């Protein structure tokens, strides 16, 4: 296959079928353009200040915080799959583990990058470590996410070192072998960290005494949103992983994982989603009838401002909660690929809606008697940065798929001559 | 004796002139608003709201409510949530001290504050040429990307403490320390003092039956009180259900 | 964060929070350090080749990892758990004692004895298609077996190890270049290079083993033809143009110089499967 044309064949695993270099480059072009636009927009914000966004003193959190929370919840599949495989021994999920790690790495690194643009003084990021506030949920989030990003990087390195060229040197191969052996430790640490930061992200909102829409009672120092966020994250992580895998299968025209694996992910998602819907319903009832009135807000008052009507609550819990849980659990629909993916998609929408509502609706609602309901539309710089993050994810995942063994044993399967 | 600085704002005396806002800006080196600044992106540590009783026509009554940092005493929301302790409740004075030098600009405190009393520096501060001569040398200028708020003109407290120390005294003279807004108010609507001292006029005003605090039900124990003989003004302490109470902010 | 930093207080929450944080960080960094230290240790103790081979073996497709005892018909199906290292396999003796072809499954179906290929009985064969011939003076001759030689044909260039070089089993014996592909030939045995040869001499290396040579892991005698039958089937599948689908030819001998005869085949895949590269 020696070719005079410029090719990256030597970077691709032997026997692995990939599109031509030119076609792959063509696929990357629009994503690189989107990423460049995102970097430019982020650069504007870093250079000129956050006045480039449409956030203001009343909407201190905006599109980016919603993006960060959503992306971190969607990336929960990484730690959860690792937990299931290494701690609970569910080895049937092993083929998807590498993809889950890469996806998690993308989500967390992207979220941290956007956070660095979102804060007013990014260079002071280390102050949280030097003067931690043990009462603050955000301190907890900062510590956990930083450590967890480190864990994900260390889990990504063995996958990287399995690249045909990168793993050539004996020192790389031996290091990969040794690190790979210790991955169960990292998986355990990762699960511990993830539980806490997914929860603390929920806790961020639950402790806001001054925002009765978000405020919740809970267990000890942890508001109920702490547990709801963890539950929703592990419910949607497998779904997102399933959607991404299905997208890869569609784009490459090839099955990437053993049959039944996607359905297995859907089942996991469905069970956890059902539990989440139950928990959230109970929490919502308590909030509407007990917590909120105790600080002077009657139920449904929050939903008096269109378009944030009470339909939002029902959509979040029923259409994006109960319905996908049913689709993913009921064997007839779960066995049908289209319904399976629809269920997963609806579940992801539910998470996005939940994070959106907790961020934007919380801040839009009045707190003082003479406050008003406010509106906020992100500026193009914010949207472009958002787009840049998505482009970053697609690019990293595409590169990982092309050059790394992301999905189990796909190569040379045709040579199984014994007919087994 | 324990010191807990606080204010009592007499709503019945407030004319909405805004002198307190101007004095606050001058004292605290608040830069002129950037060209694209709006009411929601400006910096107004003291902000006067125009409020009404919600009726129209003949029955309509209006008033002005100056809102500043409430110096919450109990489970101060901003103190609890700041990830790097850039704001602390000073145990000696009860003032909630914001440290812009430590602020990361994450704005979590701004979402936590129920009174919307915190302001972010969305722009780099810039003074027209010559105007920098009007800067108060006792107050540090903040840079872009950090949060600021009222700190009861702490520089003035500092000056009063230095004066007392120079005179060999341990306690400051009550008349030597008053925030700029208190000083500037033409009707004397703001009474400032030590709420922990029962002989202090501010403390006595705070205990009057017409005194109220905003959102007292939240339990943050604010140290900024309001008083009014009008019951509809006192009703503004807690949010009502009717959404039609949209009001225009002053300034 | 630490005592001595302005504002630090020894509260219960601080103790819990910071001890958890430091435990987590130390665990993570400890993992990284352990991996690095072990790696350095492995490299220093010369275990790099062994570990690289183990890691690469695990990445080979299952079809290329069948146990020699399965090939010999002693057991119905068994995937090698030991990277073909029969010398250190705990179960080798157990399986070796079983009768060859005794499971009722024929070792090969209707194939001629050595399928027209030259596989002398006095040689021992490595799964990476090299042979070892012990000499009277205690040295070992190593060469490329007939199947591999016919595949590659006349190499464009040859990179042999220098005299005195240490060769490690399953490491690199020598490299050959052909039509832009680099073939890395796996060493069948340990030893120090005494003399080098080439395709024209019929052998490539003469090695002096350290102590007595242990050849247990190499195939010999009746194990060879079932193995070759499998290899030929694999080649036929891999060399068939994709649209045609697998087509098993009956009889037929491998043409020498196949790489020249079929320049458009997926040589990347074929060579990797033949010379045991992932």
Secondary-structure map:
The complex is a heterotrimer of chains A (420), B (251) and C (278).
Chain A: H1 21-48, H2 63-74, H3 76-87, H4 97-118, H5 127-130, H6 137-160, H7 170-181, H8 183-206, E1 218-219, E2 222-223, H9 224-252, H10 261-294, H11 311-329, H12 331-334, H13 337-364, H14 380-403
Helix pairs in contact in A: 1-14, 2-4, 2-13, 3-4, 3-8, 3-9, 4-6, 4-14, 6-7, 6-8, 8-9, 9-10, 9-13, 10-11, 10-13, 11-13
Chain B: E1 5-10, H1 19-27, E2 47-52, E3 62-67, H2 77-81, E4 87-89, E5 96-98, H3 108-112, E6 118-120, E7 147-149, H4 154-166, H5 180-184, E8 190-194, H6 201-206, E9 211-212, E10 224-227, H7 231-234
Parallel strand pairs in B: 1-10
Antiparallel strand pairs in B: 1-8, 2-3, 4-5, 6-7, 9-10
Chain C: H1 12-44, H2 48-59, H3 68-71, H4 92-96, E1 124-126, E2 130-134, E3 140-144, H5 146-152, E4 157-159, E5 166-167, E6 172-178, E7 181-186, E8 191-198, E9 203-208, H6 224-239, H7 258-261, H8 267-274
Antiparallel strand pairs in C: 1-2, 2-3, 3-9, 4-6, 5-8, 6-7, 8-9
Helix pairs in contact in C: 6-8
What does this structure look like?
- The complex is a heterotrimer of chains A (420), B (251) and C (278).
- Chain A has 420 residues and is mainly alpha-helical.
- Chain A has helices at 21-48, 63-74, 76-87, 97-118, 127-130, 137-160, 170-181, 183-206, 224-252, 261-294, 311-329, 331-334, 337-364, 380-403; strands at residues 218-219, 222-223.
- Chain A has a single domain (18-406), classed as Formate dehydrogenase/DMSO reductase domain (Formate dehydrogenase/DMSO reductase fold, Up-down Bundle).
- Chain A is built from 14 helices and two strands; from the N terminus they run ααααααααββαααααα.
- A two-stranded antiparallel ribbon of chain A has the order 1-2.
- The longest helix of chain B is centred in the middle third of the chain and has 13 residues, at 154-166.
- Chain B is 19% helix and 16% strand.
- Chain B has a single domain, classed as Alpha-Beta Plaits (2-Layer Sandwich), CATH 3.30.70.
- In chain B, the strands form four sheets. Chain B has a four-stranded mixed beta sheet with strand order 8-1-10-9.
- Chain B is of the alpha+beta class and 251 residues long.
- With 278 residues, chain C is α+β, with helices and mostly antiparallel strands.
- Chain C has two domains: 11-45; 114-274, OB fold (Dihydrolipoamide Acetyltransferase, E2P).
- Chain C is built from eight helices and nine strands.
- In chain C, 34% of the residues are buried.
- Residues 103-112 of chain C have low confidence and may be disordered.
- Chains A and B meet through helix 5 and helix 6 of A and helix 2, helix 3 and strand 6 of B.
């Amino acid at each position: 296959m020696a070719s005079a044309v410029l090719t990256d064949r030597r970077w691709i695993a032997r026997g692995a079928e990939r599109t031509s270099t030119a076609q792959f480059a063509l696929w990357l072009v629009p994503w690189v353009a989107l990423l460049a636009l995102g970097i430019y927009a982020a650069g504007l914000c870093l250079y000129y200040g956050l006045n480039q966004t449409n956030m203001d003193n009343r909407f201190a959190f905006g599109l980016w915080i919603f993006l960060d929370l959503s992306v971190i919840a969607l990336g929960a599949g990484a730690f959860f799959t690792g937990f299931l495989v290494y701690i609970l021994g569910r080895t049937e999920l092993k083929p998807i583990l590498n993809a889950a790690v890469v996806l998690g790495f993308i989500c967390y690194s992207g979220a941290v990058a956007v956070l660095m643009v979102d804060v007013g003084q990014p260079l002071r990021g280390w102050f949280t470590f030097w003067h931690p506030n043990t009462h603050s949920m955000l301190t907890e989030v900062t510590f956990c996410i930083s450590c967890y990003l480190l864990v994900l990087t260390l889990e990504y390195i063995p996958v990287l070192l399995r690249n045909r060229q990168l793993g050539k040197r004996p020192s790389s191969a031996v290091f990969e072998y040794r690190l790979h052996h210790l991955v169960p430790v990292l998986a355990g640490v990762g699960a511990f960290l993830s539980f806490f930061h997914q929860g603390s992200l929920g806790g961020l909102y639950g402790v806001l005494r001054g925002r009765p829409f978000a405020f919740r009672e809970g267990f000890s120092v942890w508001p109920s949103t702490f547990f709801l966020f963890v539950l929703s994250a592990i419910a949607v992580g497998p779904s997102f992983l399933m959607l991404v895998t299905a997208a890869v299968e569609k784009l490459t025209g090839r099955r990437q994982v053993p049959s039944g694996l996607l359905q297995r992910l859907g089942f996991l998602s469905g069970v956890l989603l059902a539990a989440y819907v139950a928990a959230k319903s109970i929490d919502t009832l308590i909030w509407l009838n007990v917590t909120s009135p105790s600080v002077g807000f009657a139920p449904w008052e929050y939903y008096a401002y269109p378009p944030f009507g009470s339909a939002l609550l029902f959509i979040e819990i029923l259409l994006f909660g109960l319905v996908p849980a049913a689709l993913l659990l009921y064997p007839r629909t779960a066995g049908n690929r289209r319904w399976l993916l629809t269920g997963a998609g609806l579940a992801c929408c539910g998470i996005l809606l939940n994070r959106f509502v907790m961020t934007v609706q919380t801040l839009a609602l009045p707190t003082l008697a003479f406050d008003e309901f406010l509106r906020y539309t992100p500026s193009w710089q914010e949207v472009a940065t958002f787009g840049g993050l998505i482009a970053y994810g697609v690019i990293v995942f595409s590169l990982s798929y092309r050059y790394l063994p992301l999905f189990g044993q796909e190569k040379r399967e045709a040579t199984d001559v014994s007919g087994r | 004796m324990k010191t807990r600085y606080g204010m009592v704002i007499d709503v019945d005396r407030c004319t909405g002139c805004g002198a307190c806002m101007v004095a606050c800006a001058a004292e605290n080196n608040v830069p002129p608003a950037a060209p694209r600044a709006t009411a929601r992106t400006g910096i107004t540590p003291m902000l006067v709201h125009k409020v009404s009783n919600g009726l129209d026509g003949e029955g309509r009554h209006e008033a002005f409510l100056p809102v500043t940092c409430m110096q919450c005493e109990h489970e101060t929301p901003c103190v609890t949530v700041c990830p790097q302790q850039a704001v602390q409740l000073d145990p000696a004075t009860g003032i909630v001290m914001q440290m812009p030098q430590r602020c990361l600009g994450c704005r979590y405190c701004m979402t936590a504050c129920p009174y919307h009393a915190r302001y972010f520096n969305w722009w780099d501060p810039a003074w027209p040429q010559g105007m920098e001569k009007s800067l108060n040398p006792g107050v540090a200028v903040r840079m872009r990307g950090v949060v600021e708020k009222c700190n009861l003109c702490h520089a003035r407290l500092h000056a009063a403490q230095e004066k007392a120390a120079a005179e060999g005294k341990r306690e400051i003279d009550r008349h030597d320390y008053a925030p700029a807004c208190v000083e500037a108010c033409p009707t004397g609507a703001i009474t400032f003092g030590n709420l922990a001292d029962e002989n202090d006029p501010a403390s006595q005003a705070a205990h009057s039956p017409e005194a109220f605090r905003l959102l007292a039900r939240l339990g943050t124990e604010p140290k900024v009180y309001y008083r009014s003989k009008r019951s509809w003004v006192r009703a503004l302490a807690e949010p009502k259900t009717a959404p039609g109470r949209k009001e225009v902010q002053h300034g | 964060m630490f005592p001595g930093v302005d504002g630090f207080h020894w509260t219960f929450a601080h103790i819990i929070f910071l001890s958890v944080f430091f435990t987590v960080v130390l665990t993570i960094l400890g993992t990284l350090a352990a991996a690095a230290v072990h790696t350095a240790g492995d490299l220093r103790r010369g275990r790099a080749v062994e570990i690289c081979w183990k890691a690469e073996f695990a990445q080979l497709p299952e079809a290329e990892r069948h146990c020699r005892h399965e090939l010999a018909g002693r057991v119905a199906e068994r995937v090698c758990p030991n990277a073909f290292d029969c010398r250190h396999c705990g179960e080798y003796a157990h399986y070796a004692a079983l009768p060859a072809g005794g499971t009722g499954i024929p070792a090969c179906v209707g194939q001629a004895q050595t399928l027209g290929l030259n596989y002398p009985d006095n040689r021992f064969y490595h799964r990476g298609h090299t042979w070892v011939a012990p000499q009277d003076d205690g040295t070992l001759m190593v060469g490329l077996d007939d199947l591999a030689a016919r595949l590659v044909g006349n190499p464009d260039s040859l990179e042999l190890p220098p005299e005195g070089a240490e060769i490690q089993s399953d490491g690199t014996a020598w490299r050959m270049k052909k039509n832009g592909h680099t073939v890395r030939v796996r060493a069948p045995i340990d030893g120090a290079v005494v003399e080098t040869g080439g395709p024209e001499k019929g052998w490539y290396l003469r090695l002096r083993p350290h102590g007595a040579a242990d050849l247990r892991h190499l195939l010999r005698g009746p194990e060879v033809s079932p193995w070759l039958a499998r290899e030929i089937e694999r080649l036929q599948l891999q060399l068939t143009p994709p649209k045609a689908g697998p087509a098993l030819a009956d009889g037929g001998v491998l043409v020498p110089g196949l790489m020249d005869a079929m320049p458009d085949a997926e040589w990347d895949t074929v060579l990797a499967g033949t010379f045991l590269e992932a």
